[in-house]
Design goal:
53% of the residues lie in helices and 9% in strands. By secondary structure, it is an alpha/beta fold. The chain starts with a strand and ends with a helix. It folds into 2 domains: 92 residues, Resolvase, N-terminal catalytic domain (Rossmann fold); 81 residues, Homeodomain-like (Arc Repressor Mutant, subunit A, Orthogonal Bundle), CATH 1.10.10.60. The protein is elongated, with a radius of gyration of 19 Å.
Length: 203
Amino acid sequence: MTKVGYARVSTREQNLDRQLSALKNAGCTRIFQEKKSGVTLERPELAAMLNYIHDDDEVVVVALDRLGRSAADLTETINTIGQQGATLNVLNLPTFAEVPNRAMRTMLTNLTLEIYKYIAQEEREAIHERQAAGIIEAKRRGVYKGGAIQYAPDSPDKHRRYIYSQAITMLKDGTQSKAQIARTLGISRPTLYRIAGEISGTH
């Protein structure tokens, strides 16, 4: 069994030293690292790590959000780890190492991951909603200075252009609720409502 670490910077933390130290202290003998924010799909080191692991390996990260930002993204990555025969150890979550039965340990771990994925998604959406409310209030008071729209057909970020086009397609399809689409794409509900308004011509 090999302990394989994965480290990635966040938008708040641009230094990998803390993560690398924690992964080494956890016994990782192979560490994949990259300075890619969660808003881009271009994570070659994550892909390399998922290709590297095999049966009985243990993937170690300091926090669940290092593996992805949206619930859908996290689910896909965690499923891939399991399909490779490896297990996942998130250092800031319970490990259930004291549970002797492996099946029970796996069940408890999976349940914990699902709960934390949901909490992380809700926290991100709440932050975006507070930001949107703050912008509305700033506009009302006439002090909002504005800024570039992040998700738009002319966004300088190709990933955000792709997310915008996917949102348009899914909204026009109409088979999912706006909340479901926002969760799947990893964007805030206010952002999706703005895009929906552009389609209907009400924004």
